[in-house]
Amino acid sequence: MNIQKVNVCMDILKKDLGEGFIASCIIMTEDGQVLVATDQANIAEATLLNDATAFIRNALKTYPAELGQYYYVDVAGTMAVLVIPFGDYQWTVTVNKKQVKLGLLLNVVLPAIINAFEDAVVS
């Protein structure tokens, strides 16, 4: 993994979301080790969401369904969290949902950061 390229991913995220960006963290799914995090990132939240992702994946095994590329958690108040599982990695992005349009987040920002992260992983 190319950490410099991962940092570029974070820069893309911050630039595209502007003042609606709150925090972000990329962790290893196996042990919750933090690879990169912004200053405001809540590591406990990222670890908890890693456990939640594992639970969701396990629960979906009873249905003919799998977890998609991401899931979105609408938190009470003004926050929302986008969770992007990448196999061995998981990326959480916390935003102010009053300042970030969901369509922009899911249709423009998400594909851009997924492509940039996949490039960073193979580098």
Write the layout of secondary structure elements.
Elements: H1 3-17, E1 21-28, E2 34-37, H2 43-60, E3 71-74, E4 79-86, E5 89-96, H3 102-122
Antiparallel strand pairs: 1-2, 1-5, 3-4, 4-5
Helix pairs in contact: 1-3
Share of β-strand residues: 25-35%
Helix content: 40-55%
Distance between the termini: 6 Å
The overall average pLDDT, rounded, is 90
The count of β-strands is 5
Flag low-confidence runs: none
The ordered H/E elements are HEEHEEEH
Q: Would you identify the CATH H-level superfamily?
A: Dynein light chain 2a, cytoplasmic
Strand count, sense and barrel status of the largest sheet are: 5 strands, antiparallel
Structural Rg: 14 Å
Name the shape in a single word.
globular
Number of domains: 1
Concise overview:
By secondary structure, this protein is α+β, with helices and mostly antiparallel strands.
How would you sum up this structure, described in words?
It is a single chain. The chain is an alpha+beta fold. The protein has one domain: Beta-Lactamase, CATH 3.30.450.30. It is built from 3 helices and 5 strands, in the order αββαβββα. It has helices spanning 3-17, 43-60, 102-122, and strands at residues 21-28, 34-37, 71-74, 79-86, 89-96. Strands 2-1-5-4-3 form a 5-stranded antiparallel β-sheet, sandwiched between helices. The chain starts with a helix and ends with a helix. The mean pLDDT is 90.
